[in-house]
Amino acid sequence: MDQTPQTFANHAKYDPPFHFVVVPVLLINILALGYYLVRFPSLGGAWFFVLSVAFLMLALRMRSYATHLQDRIIRVEERARMGAILPEPLRVRAGELTDTQLVGLRFASDAELPALVQRALDEKLSRADIKKSITEWRPDNSRV
Fold this sequence. Notes:
This protein is 68% helix and 0% strand. It is mainly α. Helix 2 crosses helix 4 and helix 4 packs parallel to helix 6 (127-133). The chain is elongated. It starts with 15 loop residues before the first helix and ends in an 11-residue tail after the last helix.
């Protein structure tokens, strides 16, 4: 397993079978079928082209469902963590955080979470801005 500490620069994750096999194969299939459909028009060729597009859409939606579910779980986890860590005045305001801000805050260490929540609320920081502001990165190695 990779022991490189996780940071903003390297936290994005690729799933090699999905990103480098499934999606490229489906895209190449669409291009090849499109080429053959233009050269040799037929109802069967058109149907296979439609199926190829549907398979690509299916693959992308399945990935999207997984990442959306992950974001929902992160929101629940972060709300529970904030309830335990944040001081009372800030805990009350934590409900004002947007979903994307909560997802960005998951990487903040417990020590810097209160100050970062305050900044996120006051400055309306984006998910990327929150991640860039983190100095003590809390890795998330189980993300999809």
